[in-house]
Design goal:
Bound molecules: 5'-O-[(S)-ethoxy(hydroxy)phosphoryl]adenosine
Radius of gyration: 24 Å
Number of strands: 26
Strand order of the largest sheet: 2-1-11-10-12-13-14-15-16
Distance between the termini: 66 Å
Helix content: 25-40%
Structural class: alpha/beta
Largest sheet: 9 strands, mixed
Length: 570
């Protein structure tokens, strides 16, 4: 990284906002003259060739493993994996999906994939068969890296584009067939060279595909390009506040955008040491992780903080959390109480900020140098214009609610929805602006406050769930005639998923059936999208054209006014 660049000083938000230029940020990268780029080179190799060569890039641990990898280790391992893919004939632009529990191998294979110019597609480890199928099918992935344990959830015989499955770890390996070949990761890695010619990319070439949900249709593949690095680098520098000696821990899984943009790219672009902890959440485990690595910067989500609030002060005192100097939160509303609690127990303010899978990087934030208003998400990042607009694209007066919109053209903006131009256009109906469909207000001082979603997307435990995906699964059950799914407010999880179903003839309402339906979604799709509550009803409210009115169910459920019912079928 060239240190001679003069950049605005983030000690003063207004000054930084006024003087910022993305062009100047570009000069921080090795490619700014050639124009040819590769995210993995900038995140790994550049440091491996610098004074950071022996610096730890990744600390990984779970119940069984405890390992660390320097930038140089990561360079050679990702090179080797890149060669594994090249030896299979994989080329630039092909989709390589990663479906594994958190492990060093995810990061090695992700970086190796990027190095040969292929597009990485990380999948959350909790996905079950239908969820895996939908994503691999839509993306026409040709390679999948997974574990023998997760393989039974991959319906590879039904996925004609899928040619190669690389299995990480021990377990049974199925026989090859004419349509598909299986490989053992360890064996292939031993055979491949650690010297690799990186594929130099255009800034606009595809890099990573994250599937996410809207209120209608199956999950959609949001494509980000190598150019996103400019945004991720600078936001990580200023918002995560990364300095040379920091130990950074982002708790998000790489199956979600937070776990890549700020779990890997942002921190590594800044040459930071990254902690990855495998396994499940527990307060003891998380606090021990902070203590063990002396974590200085900790990035998590409101649900996790709310669950940590259950640990009393005596419980917290058993851990040495004195290394912490900066805490951040994203993904769902961070209540003011949680900020106050954080100040009390950690002596630090939890910094909220806002962005989406589609934005690729942070858009609105509380900066370390800025006064926090607990409950607010902060202010737009320099170089980004965000505003609260009405349906016509006019800015609403301060204090009034509208859609949180972002002026098109920020560097990490999604470039495509995979094979769905129409969906992409749907975000840009206000000319020149990206519409998040989040409802928000801006106060007199320019701080932005989250109010809710203006569609049916559910935010549960920090994860974004589309009702359609869950409904589609429910109606596959032989007893279900129709299904509608809503988010119901919950003090810890933000929202929980509640399903309303009507039954086919011959089926009776029972507690057993409700439980069975929940299990059905859990086994078919994923545990985190399984409805915590299932209510069987005689009929579901519908428009005259037959569309189920989720908003009416939600209003009934919450005892709220139902609004305009003129289109409802009587
Ligand atoms: C919500 C996660 C309140 C919002 C990075 C957005 C938030 C969706 C916040 C994106 C916040 C994100 N306060 N709500 N600070 N940050 N959201 O794509 O509704 O998983 O549209 O990206 O999460 O979720 P996604």
């Amino acid at each position: 990284m060239s240190h001679s660049i003069k950049q605005p000083n983030m000690q003063d938000y207004d000054e930084a906002y006024a003087n910022f230029s993305w062009k100047e940020v570009e000069e921080a990268f090795s490619w700014h003259e050639s124009g040819k780029v590769n995210m993995a080179y900038e995140a790994i190799d550049r440091h491996a060739e610098s004074f950071r060569k022996n610096k730890v890039a990744l600390y990984y641990s779970d119940e069984k493993r405890d390992e660390k990898y320097t930038f140089q280790d990561m360079k050679y391992l990702s090179n080797t994996f890149g060669n594994v893919l090249r030896n299979l004939g994989i080329e630039k632009g092909e989709r390589v999906f990663l479906f594994m529990p958190r492990s060093p191998e995810i990061y090695i294979s992700m970086m190796g994939t990027l190095k040969i110019g292929a597009i990485a597609g990380p999948l959350f480890e909790a996905f079950m068969e239908q969820a895996v199928f939908d994503r691999l099918e839509n993306s026409d992935a040709s390679v999948l890296v997974t574990t023998p344990e997760l393989l039974p959830r991959v319906p590879y015989k039904e996925l004609p584009s899928l040619k190669h499955i690389i299995l990480v770890g021990d377990g049974e390996i199925p026989n090859n067939s004419k349509d598909i070949n299986f490989y053992v990761y360890e064996q292939e890695m031993r055979k491949a060279s650690r010297e690799l010619e990186i594929e130099w990319m255009d800034r606009e070439d595809g890099m990573i595909l994250h599937y996410t949900s809207g209120s209608t249709g199956k999950p959609k593949g949001v494509l980000h390009v190598h150019n996103a690095m400019i945004h991720q680098y600078q936001t990580a520098k200023w918002i995560l506040d990364l300095k040379e000696d920091d130990i950074y821990w982002c708790t998000a899984d790489p199956g979600w955008v937070t776990g890549t943009s700020y779990g890997v790219f942002g921190p590594w672009l800044n040459g930071a040491s990254n902690v990855i902890r495998g396994g499940r959440f527990s307060p003891e485990d998380w606090y021990s992780t902070i203590e063990k690595y002396r974590v200085t910067i900790w990035y998590s989500a409101p649900t996790a903080f709310r669950r940590l609030m259950a640990v009393d002060e005596e419980g917290i005192k058993q851990f040495d959390l004195s290394s912490l100097r900066h805490i951040l939160s994203v993904g769902e509303p961070l209540n003011a109480e949680v900020v106050h609690w954080g100040r009390k127990v950690y002596g630090l303010s939890i910094h909220d900020h806002w962005w989406m899978t589609e934005t690729g990087g942070i858009i609105v934030s509380n900066y370390p140098s800025m006064e926090i208003k607990p409950g607010s998400m902060g202010k737009p990042f320099p170089g980004v214009e965000a505003a609260i607009l009405d349906g016509e694209g006019n800015e609403v007066p301060r204090g009034q609610m509208g859609h949180l919109c972002v002026k098109s053209g920020w560097p990490a903006m999604m470039r495509h929805i995979w094979k769905n131009e129409e969906k992409l256009n749907g975000y840009f109906e206000i000319p020149g602006w990206f519409d998040s469909e989040d409802l928000a207000t801006m106060d007199e001082d320019g701080y932005i406050w989250f109010e809710g979603r203006d569609d049916d997307v559910i935010l549960t435990s920090g994860e974004r769930v589309g009702p359609f995906e869950v409904e589609s699964k429910l109606v596959e059950h032989p007893s279900v005639a129709e299904a509608a799914v809503i988010g119901k407010p919950d003090p810890v999880r933000g929202e929980i998923i509640k399903a309303f179903v009507s039954l086919r003839e011959g089926y009776e309402k029972s507690d057993g059936l409700e439980k069975e339906l929940r299990e059905f979604v859990k086994k078919g799709l994923a545990a985190h999208v399984a409805p915590r509550e299932v209510e069987i009803r005689d009929f579901l409210p519908k428009t005259r054209s037959g569309k189920i009115m989720r908003r009416v169910l939600k209003a009934w459920e919450l005892d709220l006014p139902t609004g305009d019912l003129s289109t409802m079928e009587k």
